[in-house]
Amino acid sequence: TRMGSGKGSPEYWVAVVKPGRILYEMGGVSETVARAAISIA
Asked: From the UniProt record, which GO molecular function terms apply (predicted)?
């Protein structure tokens, strides 16, 4: 778009996830523990 069109700030983020992929979200654990949990699963 051209400059000065009043687009405003982004409201949210979007990520492209290809079909067949599984997306995980973990909170409250360290990256090491999260990686270990994924490798065991």
From this structure: rRNA binding; structural constituent of ribosome
Q: What is the pTM of this model?
A: 0.47
For CA atoms 31, 32, 33, 38, the dihedral sign is: positive
CA 27 vs CA 18, 20, 22, 34, 39: distances in Å: 23, 23, 17, 9, 17
Residues 6+ apart with CB under 8 A from 38: 24
First to last CA, the chain: 44
The residue to which tokens 């654990």 are assigned: 29
